[in-house]
Design a protein that fits this description.
Layout lengths: L14 H21 L11 H6 L13 H14 L19 H13 L10 H18 L6 E5 L2 H16 L4 H4 L9 E6 L5 H8 L7 E4 L9 H13 L3 E8 L11 H11 L2 E5 L24 E4 L1 H4 L7 E5 L2 H8 L34 H36 L3 E7 L2 E6 L12 H18 L5 E5 L2 E7 L7 H24 L1
Parallel strand pairs: 2-3, 2-4, 4-5, 5-6
Antiparallel strand pairs: 1-7, 6-7, 8-9, 9-11, 10-11
Helix pairs in contact: 1-3, 4-13, 5-13, 6-12, 9-10, 13-15, 14-15
């Protein structure tokens, strides 16, 4: 297309060209939404077969018209993806994406604000700030906290970790690093059920994974608070410098919620930073009848949550909250001379520059999809959807308990764990547990390739289990009721195959 002034840019489109291509794409996507539940949850192709669909490896020398390209991309993506929005996607904590969120991402991409500085993104910055306040309010957290949206749970947890390192290290950690000579080593405390973000944080931010203290858990996979207290005191006696306790509100494997109020009390007594990874379970705090320990979110120095989990926003959207706004700024702010931007002031008319509150300078407009979702559903809508997900998990647990070939293990928030046990082995105290682990591993592989239902796995008390996690507003009671017999049918076939082998 020839732009004003005579320049021809291969990527430009006229308004009419964009409208025609956009309408075609939206029509295709609307048809996909209407038929998604009838599709396989995941493709059965191998990596090599998927790779071959893309054709030649060489970068194209000549361009192609946008219309055919978009049609090809839609076909490739819609026919060869694992569908997190499918009602029987019950595997990882990846939600069904809201349609309004998808449209929000299109809108944000067209305007393309850089939400690192207020001057570059005035309304986008204010929408993000309002979204952060609303999220804090939903969690019962102080709405005047510091906070920002991130790519996901890892980065949100990293933000809290870095704020803690800056605030609790007894030296200027930003100047001298995480372990200056003779200063002693910082220690981090978390449970054996914590997500692997803590490995990455200790590694990337200079403490080393040897600084992590893996606190034991109770029978419900929750952090043992007495063991935590003992470990802190033993470390102090050995010259370590306890810095942070990272508790979890909704563990990945079983949905367990650590005893947050009791952990908060230990942190107050010992002078440690109290961080909560609520990436999965934090938003369950809005649901009546949710675990009482979720009230402890309000006591944390920092909290990580993921709107792209239980707020059903499309990827990517995490959120970090830090109680003391200035401690958050102190972990990230630099003021290079080449930034000529209006600064935060003492008045209500201050400008927020998000590069001062997190690791990114250039930042996309993640908040629009979160903000629009919150406005479309309201807190009452989210309470209902999250409560429905939790109720469906309880229903699955009950169905599994009733099934003669399935063995239920745990139920936490919207996570159910169970396994297949052949009828002839049920109730046999001398059964081969290693065989059952191998059997259920192969069952999971076939389920994921089969397209009927997509589960994941957990290892609880040393046993390999099937795991269902409902964070999907499209999942129905009928979908849940179908799961046990699908698993049992596949289990019988796998058992026969393994016996034959």
């Amino acid at each position: 297309m020839k732009a004003p002034g005579g320049r021809q840019a291969p990527l430009e489109m006229t308004g009419e060209e964009f409208r025609a291509a956009g309408h075609a794409v939206v029509d295709r996507l609307a048809d996909f939404l209407a038929t998604q539940s009838a599709r396989p949850v995941a493709p059965s192709l191998s990596p090599g077969e998927v790779r071959a669909l893309l054709g030649a490896d060489g970068a194209p020398e000549l361009g192609t018209a946008a219309g055919p390209l978009l049609e090809e991309a839609a076909r490739l993506l819609l026919d060869n993806s694992t569908l997190s929005g499918h009602p029987r996607f019950l595997a990882y904590v990846v939600s069904s994406p809201s349609p309004i969120g998808a449209l929000a991402d299109l809108m944000a991409a067209i305007v393309n604000p850089n939400v690192g500085a207020w001057d570059l993104a005035p309304i986008a910055t204010e929408i993000e700030a309002q979204s952060v306040r609303w999220i804090a309010e939903m969690l019962g957290y102080p709405s005047d906290c510091g906070g920002l949206l991130t790519s996901g749970g890892n980065m949100a947890n990293f933000v809290g970790f870095l704020a803690a390192r800056r605030a609790r290290a007894p030296w200027d950690v930003r100047v001298e690093g995480a372990g200056p000579r003779g200063a002693g080593r910082l220690a981090v405390y978390t449970s054996a059920e914590t997500h692997t973000w803590v490995h990455k944080a200790a590694d990337l931010f200079g403490l080393g994974t040897g600084s992590i203290r893996w606190v034991s858990t109770d029978d419900a996979q929750r952090m043992d608070v007495d063991a935590l207290r003992r470990q802190i005191r033993e470390d102090r006696a050995s010259g370590w410098l306890p810095m942070l306790v990272a508790a979890t509100a909704g563990t990945v494997s079983t949905g367990a919620v650590d005893p947050l109020p009791r952990i908060a009390a230990v942190c107050r007594e010992e002078g440690l930073w109290f961080h909560v990874d609520g990436a999965y379970g934090g938003f369950a705090a809005v649901v009546p009848g949710a675990p009482e320990d979720l009230r402890g979110l309000a006591l944390a120095d920092s909290v990580a949550v993921d709107p792209h989990k239980w707020l059903y926003a499309p990827l990517e959207a995490g959120c970090a909250l830090v109680r003391d706004r200035e401690l958050l700024r102190g972990a990230f702010e630099y003021r290079p001379i080449y930034y000529h931007l209006r600064e935060e002031g003492e008045t209500k008319d201050e400008a927020i520059n998000y590069y001062q509150f997190g690791p990114q300078n250039s930042r996309g407009f993640r908040a629009l999809k979160v903000w629009l979702g919150l406005r479309q559903a309201g807190q009452s809508g989210y309470r209902r959807m999250i409560a429905d997900d939790i109720a469906l998990a309880r229903s699955l647990y009950a169905e599994v308990q009733r099934h003669p070939e399935l063995e239920a293990f745990t139920l936490g928030l919207s996570v159910t764990t169970f396994r297949y046990v052949p009828a002839e082995l049920a109730g046999n105290p001398s059964r081969d547990e290693e065989y059952l682990d191998r059997l259920n591993t192969e069952i999971l592989t076939r389920l994921q390739r089969g397209g009927e239902v997509y589960l994941s796995n957990a290892v609880v008390r040393g046993r390999f289990l099937l795991r269902s996690c409902v964070v999907n507003f499209r999942t129905t009671a009928e979908d849940i009721a179908a799961v046990p017999e699908i698993v049992a049918r596949v289990g019988r076939q796998v058992h026969q195959d393994l016996k034959g082998a």
